[in-house]
Each structure stands twice: as C-alpha cells, then as structure tokens.
Specification:
The complex is a heterodimer of chains A (about 110) and B (about 525). With about 110 residues, chain A is mostly helical. Chain A has three helices and two strands. In chain A, β1 and β2 form a beta hairpin. In chain A, α2 packs antiparallel against α3. Chain B is mainly alpha-helical. In chain B, about 75% of the residues lie in helices and about 0% in strands. Chain B has 19 helices and two strands. Chain B has a two-stranded parallel sheet. Chain B starts with a helix and ends in a 9-residue tail after the last helix. In chain B, about 65% of the residues are buried. The chains are: A mainly alpha (about 110), B mainly alpha (about 525).
C-alpha cells in the first residue's frame, strides 16, 4: 500500500475492481455456492415441521423405540457440522482468489 | 442454602470479577470496549460465541421442554443449531467486511443516512430490551428459587453484576465471562449426561426403550405432537428460530471481535461444534429429568420446567452437583445479559449518539465515555422494566425478540449485500415493516389474549392463532423492503459496487486493522 498517504484510508478504485472479469467470476461462483447451499439446508430443515405436522412418516420406529424423527434430527446436526466445514474450506479458497484479484488490481494500473 | 452452593456462587462471582479487573486495564479505546480490540483468537471467540448463544433458555428451558414434552422440546435444539448455518452462509462475512462495531455500521456502509442508522439502532435496542427483560425476569425467578431471596434482590444482583462487567471490562471482560461460562456449562452438561447414560447402561437403545414407558405419555413421548399440535404454528416457530438468530444483535457483534476473516471462521467451527454437542446433550438432560425426577416434581418446582436440569443434577449427583449446576445457570444468565447490555449500548452510544447526534465528530475519549454511559442506561432501563414485569408471563418476549430480529434485521442485511437496486427508502421500510408487523401480530396473538384468565396478559379472544408471528412478519419485512425500494427512484450503483467489492474481498478491512 502507498506509504505517502497521510490519512489511514487508502483510496481504492472499487469501480475498477468490480469491472475485473476475475472479480465477477468470483462473485458468481460464491453466490451460486452460498445460495444453493442455503436453499438446500433450509429445505431440509423446514421439511422437519412439515413432515411431523402433516404426515406420520417420521413417527414410525427406526431402531427399537427410536423413531425416524430423531434420526432425521440427528441428520440435521450432521448436516450443520458438515456444511460448517464445507463453508470454511470453500471460503479459504475464495480468500486466495480475492487476494489474487486485489493483486491484479494493484498491478493493473487501477491506481497510478 | 448449603455451604457448597455458597462456595460455587462465590467462586464464580470472584473469578468473573478478577477477569473484569484484568480486562479493565486493557480497555482504553472504543474498539477495545465494543470489540475487545478485535484481539480474540479463534477458539476464544468460538467459546465466547457459544457462551452468548447458550442462554438460560437453552440450558434450563430446553432441558425442561424435552423433559415435559419429549421431542417437541427438542425442536428448539434443532432450530437454534441450524440457524448457525444461516449466520455462517449469508450474514457473517459480509457483515464483518463492511461493519465496524454494529449492524447499523454495516447497513450504512451502503446508505450513509441518519434515518437508516437510526432505524437500525431502534430495532437493535428494541430486540435487546425485550430479550433482556425476558432474561432478567427468568434470572430473578431462578435465583429467588435457588437462593431463597426476594425477586427484586435477585434481579438487582444480576443487574449489578452484568453492569460491572460491561462498564469496567467492556467486550474483553464480557467475552471472558462468556468463555468461562461456556466451559462450565459444557462441563456440567457432560457430567449430568454421563450420569444419565450410566443409568441406561450406556445404551441409547435402552434409554429410548425405557423412555417409551417412563412417562404417562407412553410411546407418544418419543414423537412430536405433545405440545405443538397446530402445524402452521409449529412451522412459524421453526422459521423464527432459524432466521431470528441471524439477526440477533449480540450474536452479530461477536464477528467483530477477531482480527481477520480466517479467525472469524475458525471461531465459527469451534462454536458450531460446542453448540451442536450441547444441543445433542439436551436429550439426555431432558430424558433424564423425565425419568429420574418426574413430571410432577419438575412442574411443582417451576411450571415452565425451568428447574428440570438442576433437579436432575440433585437426583443424580446430590448437593455438590446441584450447587454446581445452579452456579452454572447463574453464570449463564450473567454472560448472556452482559453481551446484551453491550450490544444495546453500542446501538445507543455508537450509532445514535456518536454517529447521528455528533455526526462521527467525537474523540476517542468521548466515545469510551459515551459507551459507558450507554451501558448504564441500557442496564438501568432493563432492570427497571424487569422489576415491573415480575408477574408477567414473559416467555413470549423471547419469541418476539427473535421475530423482530428475523423480520426487521435479516431482510435489510440480505438486501444490502445482495440486491443492487436496494436503496435508503427500502432499507427504512424493510426495518420498520418487520419491526411493526412483528409487534402488531404479537399484540393480537394468544400470547397477549387468552379467554382463560391468567393464561395471558389480557382476557379475550386472540385475533390470530399464531403464537409466533414469523410466518407472516418475516415475509412482510422482505416485502416492505421490496416495495419501499421500488417506490423510490433513488439508486446508487457505484456505491453498491463498492459494497460488493468490500463484502467479497474484505479489501477495506485491512484499513481498520487494530
């Protein structure tokens, strides 16, 4: 970053970064991942009250006295842990791309 | 009250005060006060998030609900945990990349407008106050029960303690109180769960087999439907849990307390595992209480079932475990209310006073002073309201806080990050529609109106049968923001691109490094 800036704030040309193809690609990729996952886990979650309120499917016994509703709920717990780790792995890889995007902008003459 | 009980209470009070004294020496700037200078490590912040998240409602409330209603109580555990994914996938990182101390900071990163900031601060303060009153009334009743002291003294003890942490130690002290509490809570819960499993020969199958006959509900105890019989209402409640969490100010504030996005993420992994394991263990707490304490005794101690976990500890571990669990419950309440005071104070002092009244022209010293005055104000108001609300059934206040968080805060967060056309008018209408509709629907709901005297605040027929307004108020919040945006021609694409770049790359965060 420029050392001759007197203020702490560095002037960044956001417009220039937003126009970079690499940035657009990252945002597209990120948003499609985040939202498709969100739709999936919210659907899986909302199926629980829908199934328990309007059907008897989850009331049936799965193992001994353990009914499917507990298995389904356990699945939601596993899903939460799994998606948590998936998110962190994905986000760390997006971080690398974001760094590359900023480097590209700094070298590409957005500022001179 | 026994010697062991006094010992545990004094130990917890002493330990947290030492932490506060230590933290007070490190609290000199506004950033120290609100965000612990962003200096927490991943596991520390993860434990602090868990400490904020696992309120007395989670520990005492869910254990009691599972004990009394079987699976229907466990709905809360599932909802609160999955809610974590909404925070993680949609809210946490953009919030962190755009904001400084508060939710309003994040929204005004795009719309630098006093009305937007004021409305965001208003919804934050409303949520915090409702949540605080519910926590304080619950705390008062609990400590009254545990220590045999008057309700008003109990509320004052908790009130003075929480104010002390926040006032002197700011976010550093508050975080450490939350960390200590999270560790104690997990320890207590694991010990009780272990003792419950011991009784069932360490077999989940045996536990379920015995639970099928342990209560007077028979096998129905193991299935949903004991408490929630209205499908629409159940769905509405589960919506409130999952979207509300993502808008709760004291949870959102925890993403500003670490230095970078990677640390924020590692703290989230810690928190998700701890919180998830805790919620799994609520099954053992609840089942154990139902089997070894029994419904009559649980209800006799507290009609809402809040004493189920302490009574179970007493039944399985005697006086020492009972005293320990009561002290943990006390620490739980302290940690959560301290977090709430801090988020309320940030809205009042940073947003309303610092940014709107003083227009950001405020020295570091004045900021810290304002933060302290704001903390006292929030604390005093909530203590006074809690003293007045003793006889009120306040359980609905928590669901109301969740609904406002989900209906007023979440739509505006999502639109700010993801919708290019969104504008100032949309932001204000989104928040006001969510806030007002949640309040209005609750005002005509069975929480407030019930034909049976004493069951609710007023005697009469509710206009709407939803006990939780989320099913209506959350879509209304989104719709309000949408219509408000379209009604105003204003639109600033350049500003959106800036926000988009910041949110996705975190480029501006380096500039505010501590």
């Amino acid at each position: 970053m420029a050392n001759n800036q007197t203020k702490k704030e560095v002037v960044i040309d956001y417009e220039a970064i937003a126009k970079q193809e690499s940035f657009k690609a990252l945002v597209r990729k990120k948003n499609s991942f985040l939202w498709s996952m969100t739709v999936i886990f919210l659907a899986a979650y909302m199926m629980l009250p829908i199934l328990t309120s309007y059907t008897e499917i989850l009331h049936q016994k799965a193992f001994g006295e353990i009914t499917w509703v507990w298995i389904y709920s356990a699945g939601l717990f596993l899903m939460t842990w799994g998606l948590c780790h998936l998110y962190v792995a994905k986000a760390n890889s997006y971080d690398k791309e974001a760094k590359a995007i900023i480097a590209e902008y700094e070298n590409g003459g957005g500022r001179r | 009250m026994s010697f062991t009980a006094i010992f545990f209470f004094v130990a917890i009070v002493g330990l947290t005060l030492v932490v506060t004294w230590w933290a007070s020496k490190r609290t000199s700037s506004a950033s120290d006060f609100y965000t612990a200078g962003g200096g927490l490590t991943g596991w520390q912040n993860g434990l602090a998030i868990a400490g904020d998240y696992l309120s007395a409602a989670s520990f005492l409330g869910i254990a009691g609900a599972v004990a009394l209603f079987g699976f229907d109580g466990f709905f809360f555990s599932v909802g609160y945990l999955v809610a974590y994914l909404v925070v993680l996938y949609i809210v946490a990182e953009p919030l962190r990349n755009l904001g400084k101390f508060t939710l309003a900071d994040m929204i005004t990163a795009r719309f630098n407008n006093a009305k937007v900031r004021g409305t965001a601060a208003l919804s934050t303060i409303t949520i915090v106050l409702f949540y605080m009153i519910a926590q304080l009334v619950g705390a008062g009743a609990l400590i009254q029960l545990l220590l045999g002291i008057d309700y008003w003294i109990a509320v004052l003890i908790v009130g003075v303690m929480m104010t002390t942490y926040v006032l002197f130690g700011g976010m550093t002290a508050t975080s450490w109180v939350q960390i200590i509490k999270a560790c104690l809570l997990m320890l207590g819960t694991v010990i009780i769960s272990f003792l419950v499993l011991l009784k069932f020969d360490f077999s989940i199958a045996t536990m379920f087999r015995e639970m099928a006959t342990a209560t007077d509900n028979g096998a129905a105890y193991l299935n949903p439907g004991l408490r929630y019989t209205n499908g629409i209402d159940t769905i509405s409640m589960l919506i409130a849990l999952v979207v509300g969490t993502a808008g709760l100010p004291h949870i959102l504030m925890r993403f500003f307390t670490v230095k970078d996005a990677q640390t924020a993420r590692s703290s989230v992994i810690w928190a998700t595992w701890i919180v998830g394991l805790f919620y799994i263990l609520t099954i053992f707490l609840g089942f154990g209480a139902a089997a070894f304490v029994g419904k009559e005794d649980i209800i006799a101690a507290n009609p809402a079932g809040n004493m189920a976990a302490p009574l179970l500890a007493d039944a399985l571990g005697g006086d020492i475990l009972f005293s320990f669990v009561c002290a943990v419950a006390f620490a739980t309440i302290l940690a959560v209310v301290a977090g709430l005071v801090l988020s309320g104070a940030s809205a009042l002092s940073h947003d309303i006073y610092g940014q709107i009244i003083k227009k950001g022209k405020i020295s570091e010293k004045e900021q810290v002073l304002a933060a302290r005055i704001g903390s006292i104000t929030i604390a005093v108001i909530s203590i006074l309201l809690a003293l007045g609300a003793q006889t009120l059934n306040v359980a609905f206040l928590v669901s109301l806080a969740f609904c406002i968080a989900g209906s007023a805060n979440l739509p505006v967060i999502i639109y700010t990050i993801y919708w290019k056309r969104f504008n100032t008018a949309g932001a204000v209408t989104a928040m006001l529609t969510g806030l007002i509709s949640a309040l209005a629907i609750v005002a005509v709901s069975p929480n407030v109106w019930n034909p049976v005297e004493g069951a609710a605040i007023f005697v009469g027929e509710p206009l709407i049968m939803l006990t939780n307004p989320a099913l209506i108020s959350v879509p209304l919040g989104f719709l309000g923001g949408f219509i408000g945006t379209l009604l105003s021609k204003e639109s600033d694409e350049a500003k959106y691109r800036e926000v988009d770049v910041k949110a996705n790359t975190g480029i501006s965060v380096q500039d505010v490094s501590h």
